[in-house]
Design a protein that fits this description.
The chain is of the alpha/beta class. The chain contains 10 helices and 5 strands. It has a 5-stranded parallel β-sheet, sandwiched between helices. Strand 3 (50-54), helix 3 (62-71) and strand 4 (79-84) form a beta-alpha-beta unit. It is globular, with a radius of gyration of 17 Å.
């Protein structure tokens, strides 16, 4: 069973999400939080597989709560799926930079929400084309961070850089395998090694690294 923690300041929405999750065959609600601070505390205590995280909450907002959860080395297995009614660039960028594995609007159809939970629980990231375009737009207008970017790729082989570049361009593992004439298993091995070498959580973070390091630029 996929264990889900629901964090939203509206009790009615929490209840609706709980009914949806608990009526699935492979997911269960293990906790509910009404504030970001409570979400952080519960995540540390019960260690869910996925946190459904609202953005606008009192006390600590969802972005800061996501950052705290993802920065905790004891919570490496916890994935955060951001849910919000606000389709704004700053939230998308902030959530992914904080370590979120996905971003969905609250008007997402129930079936798509459940698919999103399963995707991030499986260790993948949930980046729809619209979210990817928004993320790219953010990188286009933001200055690069003031840190030694080239050193991020120390120890990454040329083949792994090729794979990382294609991840940044939005290709799936199967598409990368076809593009580089590799087996799917080999591509998965490369992706796993890149994640380990760069010390990032999932594919969403690899997209960010690909842009920050200049492997991918807007328009390529």
């Amino acid at each position: 069973m996929i264990r889900v923690l629901i964090a939203d300041d509206q009790a009615l929405l929490r209840g609706s999400f709980k009914v949806l999750v608990d009526h699935s065959d492979d997911c269960e609600t293990v906790g509910e939080a009404g504030t970001g601070a409570e979400a952080v505390r519960l995540a540390a205590r019960i260690r869910p597989d996925v946190v459904l995280m609202d953005v606008r909450m009192p006390d600590v907002d969802g972005i800061d709560a996501t950052r705290q959860i993802c920065a905790d080395p004891d919570l490496q297995g916890v994935r955060v799926l951001i849910l919000t009614t606000f389709d704004l660039d700053e939230y998308v960028y902030g959530a992914l930079r904080a370590g979120a594995s996905g971003f969905l609007l609250k008007d997402t159809p129930p079936a798509e929400l459940m698919r999103g939970i399963r995707v991030v629980a499986d260790g993948a990231s949930l980046l729809s084309p619209s979210v990817t375009r928004r993320l790219i737009s953010e990188f286009a207008r933001r200055p690069r961070p003031d840190r030694p970017i080239p050193r991020l790729l120390d120890g990454v082989t040329d083949r792994e850089r090729e794979v990382l570049t294609l991840i940044g361009r939005g290709l799936s593992n199967a598409e990368i395998a076809g593009h580089l004439s590799l087996s799917l298993a080999t591509v998965k091995t490369h992706v796993g090694r890149i994640l380990a070498k760069l010390d990032v959580r999932d594919r969403a973070q690899l997209v960010i690294v690909a842009y920050e390091t200049g492997l991918v630029t807007v328009g390529t």
